[in-house]
């Protein structure tokens, strides 16, 4: 690596840099010079500001983008509830469906592909915490779709930022700021409120989503690591401006609002942004470019060294959401149990597998497109098979995870599981504990009794301990 080997060639251009101030125009001269909202923007465009943070957020947190579009976003009919009896990704509002807060370790078989639904209807909330109406917490989703969104449909979430982890297929995403191609081993983040349309050029898709209800994703601090490594700023890619000119077709704009689906009609395309500039935009990242850090002496460092993106709470160092990966890497630690140690964590850990075999779970139960959840203080670690192998392995330099990519959504919040995740999907492995940890055997052996002898006098120095002629007298 410095990048993944993709089966499908890239088809779009991008601008590089995480949280970089970008500007892009599909028509030369469409961006105003020296002003954001001139009396008459170039080419008769409308200026529209898209705010991802409060106007008065600190400068280093402030995320705003100016859009220059053919018609403003407000030109639509009233939003009306759509499929209100069936579409709900916020179960706390549904009296007959609730979040289950349980301490059990959970693991899911691979989730099924579904060729009957489009992107919007493929979203299934598996677990989560908090409330999007209060902009607190997060949601963890599985998606599995088999159809393009309608040619005149767009979708956005008012609830939070979508971090999309594609496991199978190909996503061709048309956003207001431009087009993004997402392949397995790439992630994509689409911030709250940005409209997009998803097509599937290679058929059915499947993957995972972390929706962040509060704040936005940032890069973790590097501390003593220095100025580089982990996910480097230059490797994040933002789309270039690309627009459609359509002011006469009927469009439906779908909105996920407080977990429910709404729809508005308009007579023009929402993808009419001719130019834009700012800090609030969608982006993607190739996980193969992650620069892994590890121990070169002894012991296994905390998995926080594999954090790609984070969203901190108001307590520094404690994340509402971390996105962590376990990429191919070298292990060289001496006299060390090299897989992750057994642990109980104040954080909740939701894991998924994009491809390959996760090196801490070699028993076969943790599979690509499956998942696991180890909630707050639930004990977990390597399965019995992995422990046996790692305890007896020759400690020479070895590369683990080749051809594999596992990831983790981690949160300081206690995560609840939905009815869909616990029952409806029918993917929960009932024998997870029995397979993984119950086979572990006690290995403890008491040391034998110690005996103190007074020596045999042979060759002893006179007066030394052990000299038969000098019996010690201990006092307390």
From TrEMBL:
The keyword Oxidoreductase applies. GO terms for cellular component: cytoplasm. Its cofactor is Fe cation. Fe cation binds at residues 343, 349, 380. Keywords: Dioxygenase, Iron, Metal-binding, Oxidoreductase, Phenylalanine catabolism, Tyrosine catabolism. Residues 458-470 have a biased composition (Basic and acidic residues). Pathway: Amino-acid degradation; L-phenylalanine degradation; acetoacetate and fumarate from L-phenylalanine: step 4/6. GO terms for biological process: L-phenylalanine catabolic process; L-tyrosine catabolic process. Residues 13-287 form the Homogentisate 1,2-dioxygenase N-terminal domain. It is an enzyme of class 1 (oxidoreductase). Transmembrane segments: none annotated. The active site is at residue 300. Its EC number is 1.13.11.5. Homogentisate binds at residues 358, 380. PANTHER family: HOMOGENTISATE 1,2-DIOXYGENASE. This is homogentisate 1,2-dioxygenase.
């Amino acid at each position: 690596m410095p990048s993944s080997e993709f089966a499908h060639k890239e088809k779009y251009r991008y601008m590089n840099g995480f949280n970089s101030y970008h500007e892009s125009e599909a028509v030369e001269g469409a961006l105003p010079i020296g002003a954001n909202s001139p009396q008459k923007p170039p080419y008769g465009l409308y200026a529209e500001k898209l705010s991802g943070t409060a106007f008065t957020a600190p400068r280093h947190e402030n995320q705003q983008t100016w859009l220059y579009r053919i018609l403003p976003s407000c030109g639509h009919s009233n939003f009306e509830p759509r499929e209100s009896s069936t579409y709900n990704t916020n179960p706390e509002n549904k009296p007959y469906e609730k979040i289950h807060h349980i301490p059990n370790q959970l693991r899911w078989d691979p989730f099924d592909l579904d060729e009957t639904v489009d992107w919007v209807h493929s979203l299934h909330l598996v677990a989560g915490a908090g409330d999007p109406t209060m902009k607190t917490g997060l949601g963890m989703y599985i998606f599995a779709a088999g159809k393009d969104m309608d040619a005149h449909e767009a979708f956005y979430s008012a609830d939070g930022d979508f971090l999309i982890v594609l496991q199978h297929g190909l996503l061709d995403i048309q956003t207001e700021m431009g087009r993004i191609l997402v392949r397995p081993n790439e992630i994509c983040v689409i911030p709250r409120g940005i409209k997009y349309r998803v097509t599937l050029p290679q058929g059915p898709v499947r993957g995972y989503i972390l929706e962040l209800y509060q704040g936005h994703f940032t890069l973790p601090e590097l501390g003593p690591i220095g100025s580089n490594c982990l996910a480097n700023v230059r490797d994040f890619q933002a789309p270039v401006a690309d627009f459609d000119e359509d002011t006469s077709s009927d469009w439906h704009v779908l909105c996920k609002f407080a977990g429910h689906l709404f729809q508005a009609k308009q007579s023009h395309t929402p993808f009419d942004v001719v130019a834009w500039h700012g800090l609030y935009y969608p982006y993607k990242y190739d996980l193969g470019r992650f620069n892994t850090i590890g121990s070169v002496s002894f012991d296994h460092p905390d998995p926080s060294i594999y954090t790609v993106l984070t969203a901190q709470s108001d307590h520094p160092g404690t994340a509402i959401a971390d996105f962590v990966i376990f990429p191919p890497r070298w292990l060289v630690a001496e006299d060390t149990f090299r897989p992750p140690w057994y642990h109980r964590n104040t954080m909740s850990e939701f894991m998924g597998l994009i491809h390959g075999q996760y090196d801490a779970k070699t028993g076969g139960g943790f599979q690509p497109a499956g998942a696991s959840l180890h909630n707050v203080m639930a004990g977990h670690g390597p399965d019995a098979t992995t422990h046996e192998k790692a305890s007896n392995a020759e400690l020479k330099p070895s590369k683990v995870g080749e051809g594999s990519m596992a990831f983790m959504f981690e949160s300081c919040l206690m995560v609840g599981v939905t009815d869909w995740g616990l029952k409806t999907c029918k993917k929960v492995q009932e024998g997870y504990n029995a397979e993984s940890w119950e086979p572990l055997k006690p290995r403890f052996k008491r040391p034998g009794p110690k005996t103190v002898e007074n020596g045999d006098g042979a060759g002893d120095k006179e007066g030394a301990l052990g000299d038969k002629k000098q019996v010690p007298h201990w006092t307390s």
